[in-house]
Amino acid sequence: SDYDTLVFDEFDGGAGNWSGWIDSGSATVSVSIDTTGKLSGDNSYLVDVTTGSADTYRIQRNTDCPMGADSIYAVTFMAVADTPTASINVLFEIDTGPWTKYLNEIADLDTVAKSFSYVVSPSVDVLNNELKLHFGGPQNDSTKIWFDKVVITKVVAGPTGIRPSESLVPKGIALRQNYP
């Protein structure tokens, strides 16, 4: 196959390998598995934010995802919120200081379910990498956020059969004009 699936979570068996950190001194949140079929399948992960604090990182859900140098990794997931101004900070980040980030994007949510996709190719091995979803920040105050169908894949070979370490740029191009 062209891809190796490293993570595939639809939460139908519970929270799986997801954990996280919540700054209980500044953020108020409850996390649970929602069983109402809100997104993909019967279950989804619900983050019910009462107070999001000042920073996105103060509410985290994380799962391990070691990465190898010069490989291509893709993460996709579905998400929806009960307000039109919510967001998730999506990261590939090491699990300890200095918190080096290999992906750092904002997924803007609203009340319509959406799929989000991000791609990264680290130049070094990152054995202590995690996919981190951060739900903190005042934009998420009094907001319910659901996420589901989290998939992380490693590209083994692209659709052309070219491995990620090979160049997609041709070595030479023949230019020809075509006149009738």
Question: Can you describe what's shown?
Answer:
The chain has 180 residues and is mainly beta. 0% of the residues lie in helices and 44% in strands. It is built from no helices and 10 strands. The strands form 2 sheets. Strands 1, 2, 3, 5, 8 and 10 form a 6-stranded antiparallel beta sheet that branches. Strand 6 and strand 7 form a beta hairpin. The protein is globular and about 40 Å long. The protein starts with a strand and ends in a 25-residue tail after the last strand.
Look at the structure and give the mean pLDDT: 88
Number of strand segments: 10
As residue ranges, the low-confidence spans are 161-180
Spatial separation of the terminal alpha carbons: 44 Å
Strand content: 35-45%
Helix content: under 10%
Shape: globular
Task: Give the number of helices.
Answer: 0
Key traits:
about 180 residues, mainly beta, six-stranded antiparallel sheet, 10 strands, globular, disordered C terminus
List the helices and strands and how they pair.
Layout: E1 3-9, E2 28-34, E3 44-51, E4 60-64, E5 72-81, E6 87-94, E7 101-108, E8 114-120, E9 129-134, E10 143-155
Antiparallel strand pairs: 1-10, 2-3, 3-10, 4-9, 5-8, 5-10, 6-7, 6-9
